[in-house]
Every structure is written in C-alpha cells, then in structure tokens.
Amino acid sequence: MHVCKLYTVTPYYALPRALMLQLEMCPKDPSAPLPLYLEEFTDILASSCPASRHLLDFRPPLPSSTQQSSMGDIKDGDTYQEELLDYEEEEEAAPDAVATKADGGKKGYVGIHSSGFRDFLLKPELLRAIVDSGFEHPSEVQHECIPQAILGMDVICQAKSGMGKTAVFVLSTLQQIEPVSGQVAALVLCHTRELAYQICHEFERFSTYLPDIKVSVFYGGVNIRTHKDLLKNDSPHVVVGTPGRVLALARDKDLNLKSVRHFILDECDKMLDSLDMRRDVQEIFKLTPHDKQVMMFSATLSKEIRPVCKRFMQDPMEIYVDDEAKLTLHGLVQHYIKLSEKEKNRKLNDLLDALDFNQVVIFVKSVGRAAELNKLLVECNFPSICIHSGMSQEERLTRYKGFKEGHKRILVATDLVGRGIDIERVNIVINYDMPEAADTYLHRVGRAGRFGTKGLAITFVASTEDSTVLNQVQERFEVDIKELPEQIDATTYMPS
C-alpha cells in the first residue's frame, strides 16, 4: 500500500484569524446568530479538535513575537516592499526548520478529515458542478487543503502531479468570492499560456452554476488591445494569466488589482526560480493589497525555494504530501530502453504498433525535433499532432484543445507541455529524448497516471549522459526503473 507522508503546520491563533475573513459579511451585532454554515463548521471543529473549543469565540490571542512572520509585523509600505525583495538573504536554517516543523506538526491544528466534498460545507452550486465533473471523493491533497483554504488561510502545498491541486485553489477561491462589478477578486499566475488556458477552463467548469462570477485569461501572443478592451467592457472577477502580460496590463492601468483578495501561484517553483519571472511576480504582488490570501502550489518544491515562497505570506499553512524522495506517481509503470540514436524512430514505431493506449504524449528536446518527428509519424499514418513554442499562440491552443478532445491520439511536444497540463485520456508518456533534469522527468511522466489512475512511462536511453540522468531520477525519487520487457501486460497500465 502506498503511504504518503503528510504534515500541516498551523499555529492555533491562525484558525480564528482566518475565520474572521468569513465573518466580515456577518451581522455586526455580537448577539446575532452565526450563519448556519459557520455554526456547523464550529460544531465539526470542536468535535474534531477539542483543544480548539476555547478559540471559537473568534477573539484570537495575539501571537508571540517568535510566532509572527517577518512580513506580518511590517506596517510601513516601503519597509514591507524592501523585506519582500530581499531574496539574497541566506536561509541556512531553512532545511532544518522544515524538518522541525514536520516533527512538531502534530501539536498544531490539523485539517478536518472529510469523506466527501459535501463535508467541506461548499456552496450548493459548487457541489453541483463537482458532481457534473464526475468527481466522487476528494483526493488526498484536496482532503487536507480545501477545509483550510476556504477559510482564507495562506497555503503552501507540494503534492505529486495528478492529485488535483488545481481544484483546491479553484474551489476554495470560488467558495469565498462575493462578486462585485468591476473588481478583480482573485489573481492566478502561472508560467505558460497553455497552463493559464487550462486553469481558466477549470474555473469556468466549476463556476457553471455561479453565473455572476466572470473569469478571463490573459497571456502573451494575443494583441494586448484585445485584452484592454475586455477589461474595459467586461471586467472579470477572476484573472488567470502569465506574469508578463498581467504586469503589462497593470502598468498601463488597464488592470486594477487593488481589490484582489486571493493571490495564487501555480507551479510556483518554476516562476520563483526564474529571476526575470520572479521580478514580474514581485511587482504584481506589490500592486495588490497587503491583506489577502496567498496560495502556492507545485509538484516539486525544494527546501531552498520554500523560504522564498514564505516571504509572500503571513503564517502560511504548509502541506507536503509525500516527501521529495517519494514523488513518483502511484499507479505509474516506468521502464527504460537502451538503444542508439539512430534506432529511436524504428523503436518508437514498434511501440506505437504494439502498445494499447488511449492517448500518448512523446517528449523531445527541441522545436526542430518535435516538428520532424511529428512529420515522420504522420507519414507513417499515425494520428499525430505536435505542439511547440515555435507556433503561434492561436495554433498552439487550437491543437491543444483538439488533442484534449480526442481528435488526435498522439502528441509530440517539448517541455512546454511538461508541467500542469491535464489531459485525462493520456495513459502513456514516451521520453524520446531524455530530459536534462530529474524534476523535468517527474513533470513529464506526470502527464500519465493522473489522479491516481494507471499509466506507463517509457524512456529512451541513448548516451552516457542519458544514463546519468536516469540514475539521478532513480536515486532522488527512490524508484527502481527497469528495462522494458519484451512483453508487457496491458492491464498494468490501461485503466480497467
């Protein structure tokens, strides 16, 4: 049985602080009854965590100076900005701090355990959309994050690919939003246009029965005038976008971020690792109010980047589902094939003929190789399509949508598709070219075996450099990747 290591770090005082966000819309008369859903919540909380009963009067004690975050104490705007921008400061104690919190996490408040989405006390409109989407039970990360996130708490979450992290921030944001005309309430930033498009689609899917909430996506490659007109004529309540385009719109005063209450980074490590993108994120962050919820998510979150994430937050709850060494996907069968470079095309042809699959993604290392390999597959009568950064934005999105809808069964792609993209029918990933790093391998193979389903990942090893990366993957993620046998049982990777 696959066992996940999970801990939450939440000071007692943070819970009532978060509930205060929910109580803002309540009657100011202290003798007035609480809304029904909050009465139910406090009953559940008290029974789940008896030690928290004395906290339910919503008058949290002030934290001690040792508990407050460096950003939480700062009142002066200029000082706050300087603190935020100081990323060069050494964080030598960070790895030890994380380990200490793991040991001490049991002493803090732990998320309410729920067996179904209904137990999260979500809006009826959200529950209806969840049913329409075919979800029956929350995944582990949803189980741990959603009860806390809907209270407005800051969250850092690392969980393996395919475990439904996107639904955590989509549902928790939609749960909290009270739409006001002309005001942006939530801002979601991600590092690629395709991921932004997908996140926007998820917001639209779960807000089907919340027609007053408007969602829009903004990214480069589209005429900026189109986006400016949209913001002027039909301002959204939820903005999803890439940092470059969002910053350009904000600088030109077309996008007003002064009412943002929810600031979310998806695949946060990718954005904060890149200095240029980090600067954009920082500048956008400073245009939003100090009092807001901040949530960050990623499949890979190194101990070095975690302190950087926390600089954007106040007393964040930290959830790490699986430690870094166990991030390979449950249910995913992984194999490698040793061969020469010139043998790759023939071997790929044989695999596509022999394997059973719904859809397959083939990863290559460059735009040129993607185009050439796709051309070869089409000439061999395989239903193939390719996506890479050399295409126009419109063409990329059209091809992505077509593949997601099942019009083609084979996708040849660069690492542009390697993070966050969720295509339910994909059950095989082939690394035609070995990725350069173990993290990239994890994100690539994560396109198969989504949400705990079965999948197969096959990697071509054609050089000593490839062998080195394969060894790094096995050592880091503590997984034994065996050579592909002559016969492989389809039931081990095909959904039943």
Describe this structure in words.
The chain has helices at residues 14-23, 36-48, 77-85, 94-104, 124-132, 140-149, 165-176, 193-206, 224-233, 243-251, 268-273, 275-286, 306-310, 344-354, 367-379, 393-404, 438-445, 464-477; strands at 8-9, 155-158, 186-189, 215-218, 238-241, 262-266, 293-298, 317-320, 332-338, 359-363, 384-387, 410-413, 426-431, 455-461, 482-483. The protein is α/β, with parallel strands linked by helices. It has two domains: 8-323, Rossmann fold; 328-492, P-loop containing nucleotide triphosphate hydrolases (Rossmann fold, 3-Layer(aba) Sandwich). The longest helix is centred in the middle third of the chain and has 14 residues, at 193-206. The radius of gyration is 23 Å and the shape is globular. The two termini are 19 Å apart. Mean pLDDT is 78; it is low at 1-25 and 44-114. One of its GO terms (molecular function) is ATP binding. This is RNA helicase. It is found in: Nucleus. A motif (Q motif) lies at residues 115-143.
